[in-house]
Amino acid sequence: TEIKGWAWNQNYPSKTVSVELIEGSTVLATSVASIFRQDLDTMGTGNYGFVIVSPSILRNGQPHSVSVRIKGTSILLGGSPIVVNCSSSARMSSIATVEPQIDLEKSLSLTISPNPNTGSFKCILNLSNHTKAKLIIRNIAGTEVWKQEVVGLGGEQYQEINLNIESAGIHIVTLEIGGQIISKRMVVLK
């Protein structure tokens, strides 16, 4: 069995994304999403495809519920989990393939409201269920002025923030998830 799909990061379209095939919490295989796909050539480079050949541990004639996620995160690709049932004598051509996919920009999002503000605002986050992330605010000099770990609820969620800062100016709000970073500029007026 081959598991095929694609993954990309719209914020960094020239960089590759690594994915992992997992069963439960066990990583069974990894792959780099760097194969050119004609159907994705309008999105950056189009080099976002991956193929994972089912590892031998899955070829025992038993059904296995497996998922594909972004490496080092808990972000599952669309279509996960899937059930695969591979016999030890299965020929590759006789097994159907599955097509999970992910667009990190749609899975992860960060909005600041209102912006500009007076230091009191909310961050609207969209995180996959149980995804751990860091929400960090830095001033324009790069000094961290606020930080909190957040856990995804599987959809839109709100984080109310009241900065007790004296200085007005530009701040950078960053959402960090594994190796992925989303940053937004925020203006604080006093």
TrEMBL record:
Record InterPro entries: Secre_tail
Xref: NCBIfam families: Por_Secre_tail
Protein name: T9SS type A sorting domain-containing protein
Gene source species: Dyadobacter chenhuakuii
